[in-house]
Amino acid sequence: MGDAMKTHSMARPFLLLLAVCLLAVTTLSGCGTKSPTPVSPDSVVHSQPASPKAASIIRTALVLVGYPYKWGGHMPETGFDCSGLIWFVYRQNGINLPRVSWQQFGTGTSIKRNDIRPGDLVFYDVKKTGKSLHVGIVTDRATFVHAPSSGKQVMESSLNSPYWAQHYLGARRVL
C-alpha cells in the first residue's frame, strides 16, 4: 500500500472521531442555554370579567380560532395574519382600526402589563423573518387570540407563558 493510501486510511477514523465530537458539542451545548424566565408574580395577568363590548370582541375572535394563517390575510375566506385578524374582529364590532400592526400599536391608549383588560391589544417583538411586531386580542381568561405564523392557525395562548412574557412589547386600550 502506498504512503498516500496509508495516510488516507489513517485519516478516516480521525475524521469520524472529529465529526462525532463536533456533533456531541453542538447537541449538548443546548443543555446549557438559558430557559425562558418565568413571569414575575407582579406582572402576571389574571382572568377578569369583560365589559359587554369586550365580550362581543372576544366572542368574535374565538369563533375564528382554527382559521389558517395567511400573510396579508384579513378575512375568513383567505385566512388571517396577526394584524388582519385584529382589523377584522374589531371591524365586525363597529370599531375601525388601522390594518397593519405598527399602526395598530399607535392606536388607543398605552397601558401597563398589570393593567391589561379583556379587549385590549397586546404586542410582542418576535423578530421573525419579514416581521417583528406581533399583535393579539386579550380575552377574559388571561389569554390572547392571535394568528401566529405561516403553517399555523388562529389560536389562543396564555398571556403568562414564559415565551410571550419574554417577548412582550406593550399593550393598547382601544375600547
From TrEMBL:
Keywords: Hydrolase, Protease, Thiol protease
Entry annotated with the keyword Protease: yes
NlpC/P60 domain span: 51-175
Pfam families: NLPC_P60 (PF00877)
Keyword Coiled coil applies: no
InterPro entries membership: NLP_P60_dom (IPR000064), Papain-like_cys_pep_sf (IPR038765), Peptidase_C40 (IPR051202)
Family to which the UniProt record says this protein belongs: Belongs to the peptidase C40 family.
Name listed for the protein in its UniProt record: NlpC/P60 domain-containing protein
Organism this protein belongs to: Pseudodesulfovibrio nedwellii
Record lineage: Bacteria, Pseudomonadati, Thermodesulfobacteriota, Desulfovibrionia, Desulfovibrionales
